[in-house]
Amino acid sequence: MHLLTLVRHAKSSWDNPELSDFERPLNDRGRRDAPRMAAWARQALGVPDRIVSSPALRAITTARLFADALGIDGHQLLIQPRVYEAALPTLLRLVRGFDDADRHVMLFGHNPGLSELAHALARCPFDDLPTCAVAQIALPIEHWAQLVEHDGALRDYQFPKRLRD
Fold first, then answer.
1. pLDDT above 70: residue 165
2. What is the pTM of this model?
3. Which of 4, 30, 37, 102 could be 49's S-S partner, Cβ–Cβ 3.0 to 4.6 Å?
4. How far apart (Å, rounded) are the C-alpha atoms in residues 82 and 54?
5. Sheet-wide strand order for 50-53
6. How far apart are CA 44 and CA 86, in angstroms?
7. How confident is the model over 110-156, as pLDDT tens digits?
8. pLDDT (0 to 100) of residue 163
9. Is 162 helix (H, G, I), strand (E, B) or coil?
10. Half-sphere exposure of residue 21, counting CA atoms within 13 Å on the CB side?
11. Residue 66 CA, distance from chain mean position
12. What number is the average pLDDT over the span 51-72?
């Protein structure tokens, strides 16, 4: 079995309209939520073998905050440009290409792609992943290349507002 943990980037700032979508940083809430969600993930889901992230500033910042909280070395964090603005077919190809030595991968990205990926792999109780939400999917495969749509099972799902309540 392999585990794919999907993490939507934390809440981003819209304060500077001159910044491109790619350059938007996290806002205060995002910088607070990411370490809290990472601490929850460490306890509930364990430490992944690899982190893969979109290079967009809000995603890679979220991924680095998680890596710090999870005690993950920089060499275990892979920046993957294809994740930014990726549609479902691109994300499926990306996941099928993961290294089989990495049995648990945490993927940081954006909607709508991440939500579409979650729904393509497992039955999910959400329409769209909220910011900084975490969804872990168990996949009954020996090799990432064997990934088949609708063959996974959602193991856990959490988001910041529910942790605050």
1. no
2. 0.97
3. 102
4. 7
5. 77-79, 50-53, 104-109, 2-8, 134-139, 153-158
6. 28
7. 999 999 999 999 999 999 999 999 999 999 999 999 999 999 999 99
8. 86
9. helix
10. 6
11. 10
12. 97
94: left (phi over 0), alpha (psi -120 to 50) or beta: alpha
Please say if the pLDDT value at position 164 is more than 80.
no
Sign, CA torsion 138/142/147/150: negative
CB atoms within 10 A of CB 45: 18
Helix/strand/coil (H, E, C) string of 30-48?
A: HHHHHHHHHHHHHHHHCCC
Are the beta carbons of 91 and 117 closer than 8 angstroms? yes
Q: What is the torsion angle, in degrees rounded to the nearest 10, for the CA atoms of residue 133, residue 40, residue 22 and residue 99?
A: -100
Q: Distance between CA 88 and CA 86 in Å, rounded?
A: 7
CA nearest to 7, candidates 108, 90, 86: 108
- Whether the upstream peptide bond of residue 112 has omega within 30° of 0, thus cis, is yes
Nearest to 52, CA basis, from 1, 91, 10, 2: 91
Tell me the angle at which helices 57-70 and 28-45 cross, rounded to the nearest 10 degrees: 40
Which of the four pLDDT bands, split at 50, 70 and 90, describes residue 74?
confident
Written as six digits, the tokens of 51 are 């982190």
Average pLDDT over residues 61-66: 98
